Request: fold
Amino acid sequence: MRNTILAIESSCDDTSASVINDGKIMSNIISSQIDHAKFGGVVPEIASRAHQKNIVFTVDKALNDAKVFKNDLSAIAFTIGPGLLGSLLVGSSFSKSMAFALKIPLLAVNHLKAHALSHMIDNPNSKFPYLSLLVSGGHTQIILVKSYSCMEIVGETKDDAVGEAFDKSAKILGLEYPGGPLLDKLAQKGNSQKYKFSKTKVSDLDFSFSGIKTSFLYFINDQLKINKNFIVDNLEDIAASIQKSLVDMLMEKIILASIKYKISEISISGGVAANSLLRKTIKTHSKEMNWKIYLPKIEYCTDNAAMIAYYAYFMYKEKLFSNYEITPEPRLKF
Ligand code: KG4
Ligand code: ZN
Reply:
Protein backbone atom coordinates (compact mmCIF):
# COMPACT_ATOMS: atom_id res chain seq x y z
CA MET A 1 0.00 0.00 0.00
CA ARG A 2 1.55 3.33 -1.01
CA ASN A 3 1.11 6.83 0.48
CA THR A 4 -0.11 5.48 3.80
CA ILE A 5 0.78 7.62 6.78
CA LEU A 6 0.26 7.03 10.50
CA ALA A 7 -0.16 10.32 12.40
CA ILE A 8 0.06 10.86 16.15
CA GLU A 9 -1.29 13.88 18.05
CA SER A 10 -0.30 14.36 21.71
CA SER A 11 -0.02 18.13 22.19
CA CYS A 12 -2.34 18.47 25.20
CA ASP A 13 -4.65 15.98 26.93
CA ASP A 14 -5.92 13.80 24.06
CA THR A 15 -3.89 10.92 22.68
CA SER A 16 -4.93 10.45 19.08
CA ALA A 17 -3.77 8.35 16.14
CA SER A 18 -4.99 8.37 12.56
CA VAL A 19 -4.19 6.60 9.30
CA ILE A 20 -4.48 8.39 5.97
CA ASN A 21 -4.19 6.74 2.57
CA ASP A 22 -3.85 8.86 -0.58
CA GLY A 23 -5.47 11.83 1.19
CA LYS A 24 -8.39 9.79 2.59
CA ILE A 25 -8.76 9.37 6.36
CA MET A 26 -8.99 5.62 7.12
CA SER A 27 -9.21 5.89 10.93
CA ASN A 28 -9.14 8.52 13.67
CA ILE A 29 -8.91 7.27 17.25
CA ILE A 30 -9.08 9.76 20.12
CA SER A 31 -8.36 8.64 23.70
CA SER A 32 -9.51 11.47 25.96
CA GLN A 33 -8.12 11.84 29.47
CA ILE A 34 -10.72 12.29 32.18
CA ASP A 35 -8.32 12.58 35.16
CA HIS A 36 -8.02 16.38 34.79
CA ALA A 37 -11.65 17.25 35.64
CA LYS A 38 -11.14 17.11 39.41
CA PHE A 39 -8.23 19.59 39.12
CA GLY A 40 -10.25 22.10 37.05
CA GLY A 41 -7.75 22.12 34.16
CA VAL A 42 -5.09 20.08 32.38
CA VAL A 43 -2.27 19.00 34.73
CA PRO A 44 0.86 18.64 32.53
CA GLU A 45 2.42 15.74 34.44
CA ILE A 46 -0.81 13.76 34.53
CA ALA A 47 -1.24 14.43 30.79
CA SER A 48 2.19 13.11 29.82
CA ARG A 49 1.82 10.00 31.98
CA ALA A 50 -1.62 9.32 30.46
CA HIS A 51 -0.14 9.66 26.94
CA GLN A 52 2.46 7.03 27.91
CA LYS A 53 -0.33 4.75 29.06
CA ASN A 54 -2.61 5.32 26.03
CA ILE A 55 -0.30 5.65 23.07
CA VAL A 56 0.32 1.98 22.21
CA PHE A 57 -3.31 0.86 22.22
CA THR A 58 -4.45 4.08 20.48
CA VAL A 59 -1.97 3.49 17.62
CA ASP A 60 -2.84 -0.20 17.51
CA LYS A 61 -6.56 0.60 17.21
CA ALA A 62 -5.92 3.22 14.49
CA LEU A 63 -3.99 0.63 12.43
CA ASN A 64 -6.61 -2.08 13.03
CA ASP A 65 -9.55 0.19 12.14
CA ALA A 66 -7.78 1.23 8.95
CA LYS A 67 -6.96 -2.45 8.22
CA VAL A 68 -3.31 -1.50 7.77
CA PHE A 69 -0.22 -3.39 8.94
CA LYS A 70 2.84 -1.56 10.29
CA ASN A 71 4.84 -2.70 7.27
CA ASP A 72 2.32 -1.03 4.91
CA LEU A 73 3.20 2.42 6.27
CA SER A 74 5.08 4.94 4.11
CA ALA A 75 5.76 7.52 6.86
CA ILE A 76 5.07 8.43 10.48
CA ALA A 77 3.81 11.93 11.34
CA PHE A 78 3.57 13.58 14.74
CA THR A 79 2.72 16.96 16.29
CA ILE A 80 5.91 18.96 16.84
CA GLY A 81 4.14 21.87 18.64
CA PRO A 82 2.76 24.05 20.06
CA GLY A 83 1.66 22.24 23.20
CA LEU A 84 2.80 20.85 26.53
CA LEU A 85 6.44 19.71 26.43
CA GLY A 86 5.91 16.43 28.33
CA SER A 87 2.92 15.53 26.17
CA LEU A 88 4.70 16.38 22.90
CA LEU A 89 7.75 14.34 23.96
CA VAL A 90 5.66 11.17 24.27
CA GLY A 91 4.30 11.51 20.71
CA SER A 92 7.60 12.53 19.15
CA SER A 93 9.68 9.81 20.86
CA PHE A 94 7.14 7.14 19.95
CA SER A 95 7.02 8.35 16.33
CA LYS A 96 10.81 8.51 15.97
CA SER A 97 11.22 4.99 17.35
CA MET A 98 8.56 3.62 15.02
CA ALA A 99 9.95 5.40 11.94
CA PHE A 100 13.47 4.22 12.84
CA ALA A 101 12.36 0.61 13.32
CA LEU A 102 10.36 0.58 10.06
CA LYS A 103 13.02 2.59 8.15
CA ILE A 104 10.45 5.08 6.85
CA PRO A 105 10.43 8.93 6.83
CA LEU A 106 9.35 11.11 9.72
CA LEU A 107 7.05 14.14 9.33
CA ALA A 108 6.87 16.88 12.01
CA VAL A 109 3.51 18.69 11.80
CA ASN A 110 2.59 22.14 13.17
CA HIS A 111 -0.60 21.66 15.21
CA LEU A 112 -1.94 25.15 14.32
CA LYS A 113 -1.46 24.72 10.58
CA ALA A 114 -3.20 21.35 10.85
CA HIS A 115 -6.21 22.97 12.65
CA ALA A 116 -6.36 25.70 9.98
CA LEU A 117 -6.62 23.08 7.18
CA SER A 118 -8.94 20.67 9.06
CA HIS A 119 -12.03 21.55 6.99
CA MET A 120 -10.18 20.30 3.88
CA ILE A 121 -10.36 16.70 5.09
CA ASP A 122 -13.96 16.64 3.82
CA ASN A 123 -13.60 19.49 1.28
CA PRO A 124 -10.29 18.76 -0.49
CA ASN A 125 -11.20 21.02 -3.40
CA SER A 126 -11.80 24.16 -1.33
CA LYS A 127 -9.87 27.14 -2.63
CA PHE A 128 -7.06 29.38 -1.30
CA PRO A 129 -6.94 32.07 -0.01
CA TYR A 130 -9.41 31.82 2.87
CA LEU A 131 -9.70 33.12 6.42
CA SER A 132 -9.61 30.61 9.24
CA LEU A 133 -10.99 31.44 12.66
CA LEU A 134 -8.94 29.16 14.92
CA VAL A 135 -10.61 28.99 18.30
CA SER A 136 -9.47 26.55 20.97
CA GLY A 137 -8.48 26.27 24.62
CA GLY A 138 -5.04 27.66 23.87
CA HIS A 139 -5.55 29.85 20.78
CA THR A 140 -7.83 32.48 19.29
CA GLN A 141 -6.54 33.66 15.96
CA ILE A 142 -7.68 34.79 12.55
CA ILE A 143 -5.38 33.23 9.98
CA LEU A 144 -5.05 34.28 6.38
CA VAL A 145 -4.37 30.97 4.64
CA LYS A 146 -2.75 31.60 1.26
CA SER A 147 -1.65 28.01 0.57
CA TYR A 148 -0.87 24.77 2.40
CA SER A 149 2.36 26.21 3.73
CA CYS A 150 1.86 29.98 3.62
CA MET A 151 -0.28 31.24 6.49
CA GLU A 152 -0.30 34.60 8.26
CA ILE A 153 -1.87 35.52 11.61
CA VAL A 154 -3.88 38.70 10.98
CA GLY A 155 -5.55 38.90 14.40
CA GLU A 156 -5.15 37.19 17.76
CA THR A 157 -6.04 37.37 21.42
CA LYS A 158 -4.08 39.72 23.62
CA ASP A 159 -4.79 37.63 26.74
CA ASP A 160 -6.98 34.54 27.24
CA ALA A 161 -8.12 32.18 24.50
CA VAL A 162 -11.87 32.02 23.90
CA GLY A 163 -11.91 28.34 24.98
CA GLU A 164 -10.44 29.45 28.31
CA ALA A 165 -13.17 32.09 28.60
CA PHE A 166 -15.80 29.35 28.04
CA ASP A 167 -14.13 27.03 30.55
CA LYS A 168 -13.62 29.73 33.22
CA SER A 169 -17.21 30.97 32.90
CA ALA A 170 -18.40 27.37 33.23
CA LYS A 171 -16.21 26.91 36.31
CA ILE A 172 -17.77 30.02 37.93
CA LEU A 173 -21.14 28.33 37.35
CA GLY A 174 -19.86 25.19 39.08
CA LEU A 175 -19.57 23.07 35.92
CA GLU A 176 -16.84 20.45 35.50
CA TYR A 177 -13.73 21.01 33.36
CA PRO A 178 -13.73 21.37 30.37
CA GLY A 179 -16.93 23.38 30.74
CA GLY A 180 -17.23 24.68 27.16
CA PRO A 181 -19.34 21.78 25.83
CA LEU A 182 -21.50 21.71 29.00
CA LEU A 183 -22.13 25.45 28.77
CA ASP A 184 -23.12 24.98 25.12
CA LYS A 185 -25.64 22.27 26.09
CA LEU A 186 -27.24 24.34 28.87
CA ALA A 187 -27.32 27.47 26.70
CA GLN A 188 -29.51 25.73 24.11
CA LYS A 189 -32.44 25.95 26.54
CA GLY A 190 -31.75 29.49 27.80
CA ASN A 191 -32.59 33.10 26.94
CA SER A 192 -29.42 34.64 25.51
CA GLN A 193 -30.75 38.24 25.77
CA LYS A 194 -31.36 38.13 29.52
CA TYR A 195 -27.95 39.30 30.81
CA LYS A 196 -25.31 41.60 29.31
CA PHE A 197 -21.62 41.75 30.23
CA SER A 198 -19.12 44.49 29.50
CA LYS A 199 -16.34 43.72 27.04
CA THR A 200 -12.90 45.19 26.49
CA LYS A 201 -12.60 46.88 23.09
CA VAL A 202 -9.47 45.88 21.18
CA SER A 203 -8.29 47.51 17.99
CA ASP A 204 -8.47 46.05 14.51
CA LEU A 205 -8.66 42.24 14.30
CA ASP A 206 -7.34 41.37 17.77
CA PHE A 207 -9.35 39.93 20.65
CA SER A 208 -9.40 40.27 24.45
CA PHE A 209 -11.38 38.01 26.76
CA SER A 210 -10.01 39.02 30.18
CA GLY A 211 -12.47 41.95 30.56
CA ILE A 212 -15.60 39.91 29.94
CA LYS A 213 -14.31 37.15 32.22
CA THR A 214 -13.93 39.64 35.12
CA SER A 215 -17.25 41.32 34.35
CA PHE A 216 -18.94 37.89 34.40
CA LEU A 217 -17.33 36.95 37.73
CA TYR A 218 -18.37 40.27 39.39
CA PHE A 219 -21.88 39.99 37.98
CA ILE A 220 -22.36 36.47 39.39
CA ASN A 221 -20.89 37.42 42.79
CA ASP A 222 -23.15 40.50 43.03
CA GLN A 223 -26.24 38.46 42.13
CA LEU A 224 -25.35 35.75 44.66
CA LYS A 225 -25.34 38.42 47.39
CA ILE A 226 -28.98 39.18 46.54
CA ASN A 227 -30.10 35.59 45.90
CA LYS A 228 -27.90 32.70 46.98
CA ASN A 229 -29.72 30.44 44.50
CA PHE A 230 -29.15 32.81 41.59
CA ILE A 231 -27.03 30.33 39.58
CA VAL A 232 -29.34 27.35 40.08
CA ASP A 233 -32.46 29.43 39.39
CA ASN A 234 -31.09 30.94 36.16
CA LEU A 235 -28.41 28.51 34.95
CA GLU A 236 -29.66 28.11 31.37
CA ASP A 237 -30.21 31.84 30.83
CA ILE A 238 -26.78 32.71 32.29
CA ALA A 239 -25.12 30.07 30.08
CA ALA A 240 -26.97 31.33 26.99
CA SER A 241 -26.10 34.98 27.73
CA ILE A 242 -22.36 34.47 28.29
CA GLN A 243 -22.15 32.14 25.27
CA LYS A 244 -23.85 34.73 23.05
CA SER A 245 -21.45 37.46 24.23
CA LEU A 246 -18.40 35.30 23.46
CA VAL A 247 -19.70 34.24 20.05
CA ASP A 248 -20.60 37.86 19.17
CA MET A 249 -17.01 38.89 19.96
CA LEU A 250 -15.69 36.25 17.55
CA MET A 251 -18.19 37.15 14.84
CA GLU A 252 -17.44 40.88 15.01
CA LYS A 253 -13.77 40.26 14.18
CA ILE A 254 -14.22 37.64 11.47
CA ILE A 255 -16.68 39.99 9.71
CA LEU A 256 -14.11 42.82 9.92
CA ALA A 257 -11.38 40.50 8.59
CA SER A 258 -13.54 39.43 5.66
CA ILE A 259 -14.16 43.08 4.73
CA LYS A 260 -10.52 44.14 5.25
CA TYR A 261 -9.03 41.34 3.14
CA LYS A 262 -11.97 41.11 0.71
CA ILE A 263 -12.13 37.36 1.31
CA SER A 264 -15.43 35.56 1.50
CA GLU A 265 -14.20 31.98 2.00
CA ILE A 266 -14.24 31.39 5.77
CA SER A 267 -13.43 28.33 7.84
CA ILE A 268 -13.56 27.72 11.58
CA SER A 269 -11.37 25.27 13.48
CA GLY A 270 -10.29 24.24 16.99
CA GLY A 271 -12.37 22.97 19.91
CA VAL A 272 -14.65 26.02 20.13
CA ALA A 273 -15.57 25.49 16.46
CA ALA A 274 -17.73 22.66 17.87
CA ASN A 275 -19.91 25.28 19.60
CA SER A 276 -23.48 25.05 18.32
CA LEU A 277 -24.18 28.81 18.50
CA LEU A 278 -20.96 29.72 16.66
CA ARG A 279 -21.81 27.23 13.90
CA LYS A 280 -25.39 28.53 13.65
CA THR A 281 -24.37 32.22 13.72
CA ILE A 282 -21.69 31.81 11.07
CA LYS A 283 -24.21 30.03 8.83
CA THR A 284 -26.69 32.92 9.22
CA HIS A 285 -23.98 35.49 8.45
CA SER A 286 -22.81 33.52 5.44
CA LYS A 287 -26.16 34.20 3.79
CA GLU A 288 -26.07 37.93 4.60
CA MET A 289 -22.40 38.37 3.67
CA ASN A 290 -22.38 35.97 0.72
CA TRP A 291 -19.68 33.86 2.34
CA LYS A 292 -18.69 30.33 1.40
CA ILE A 293 -18.16 28.70 4.79
CA TYR A 294 -16.41 25.51 5.86
CA LEU A 295 -17.35 23.91 9.18
CA PRO A 296 -15.27 20.82 9.96
CA LYS A 297 -16.99 17.77 11.47
CA ILE A 298 -17.02 17.98 15.30
CA GLU A 299 -14.42 15.18 15.62
CA TYR A 300 -12.05 17.26 13.44
CA CYS A 301 -12.60 20.45 15.54
CA THR A 302 -11.29 19.30 18.94
CA ASP A 303 -7.74 17.93 19.01
CA ASN A 304 -7.43 14.94 16.70
CA ALA A 305 -4.80 13.08 14.69
CA ALA A 306 -6.82 13.12 11.44
CA MET A 307 -5.93 16.78 10.90
CA ILE A 308 -2.25 15.96 11.60
CA ALA A 309 -2.49 13.11 9.07
CA TYR A 310 -4.09 15.40 6.50
CA TYR A 311 -1.35 18.02 6.80
CA ALA A 312 1.29 15.26 6.84
CA TYR A 313 -0.04 13.95 3.53
CA PHE A 314 0.74 17.32 1.93
CA MET A 315 4.23 17.32 3.56
CA TYR A 316 4.84 13.76 2.35
CA LYS A 317 4.08 14.70 -1.26
CA GLU A 318 6.48 17.65 -0.94
CA LYS A 319 9.07 15.38 0.76
CA LEU A 320 9.25 17.69 3.79
CA PHE A 321 10.83 15.03 6.01
CA SER A 322 12.49 15.54 9.41
CA ASN A 323 15.67 14.07 10.84
CA TYR A 324 15.92 12.25 14.16
CA GLU A 325 17.47 15.24 15.97
CA ILE A 326 14.22 17.20 15.83
CA THR A 327 12.71 18.00 19.27
CA PRO A 328 9.26 19.35 20.30
CA GLU A 329 8.59 23.09 20.12
CA PRO A 330 6.03 23.93 22.85
CA ARG A 331 5.71 27.57 21.71
CA LEU A 332 5.78 26.98 17.96
CA LYS A 333 4.01 29.60 15.81
CA PHE A 334 3.55 29.65 12.07
O1 KG4 B 1 -8.82 22.31 20.17
P1 KG4 B 1 -9.07 21.77 21.55
O2 KG4 B 1 -9.62 20.37 21.66
O3 KG4 B 1 -7.77 21.79 22.40
C1 KG4 B 1 -6.88 22.84 22.42
O4 KG4 B 1 -7.11 23.74 23.27
O5 KG4 B 1 -5.96 22.84 21.57
O6 KG4 B 1 -10.04 22.82 22.28
C2 KG4 B 1 -10.49 22.61 23.60
C3 KG4 B 1 -11.38 23.78 23.98
C4 KG4 B 1 -11.82 23.76 25.44
O7 KG4 B 1 -11.67 25.06 25.97
C5 KG4 B 1 -13.28 23.36 25.34
O8 KG4 B 1 -14.07 23.82 26.40
C6 KG4 B 1 -13.68 24.02 24.04
O9 KG4 B 1 -12.58 23.78 23.20
N1 KG4 B 1 -14.91 23.43 23.48
C7 KG4 B 1 -16.08 24.12 23.40
C8 KG4 B 1 -17.01 23.22 22.84
N2 KG4 B 1 -16.39 22.03 22.61
C9 KG4 B 1 -15.09 22.19 23.00
N3 KG4 B 1 -16.38 25.38 23.72
C10 KG4 B 1 -17.65 25.78 23.51
N4 KG4 B 1 -18.60 24.98 22.99
C11 KG4 B 1 -18.34 23.71 22.65
N5 KG4 B 1 -19.30 22.94 22.14
ZN1 ZN C 1 -5.71 22.23 19.25
Remarks:
- The chain has a mean pLDDT of 96.
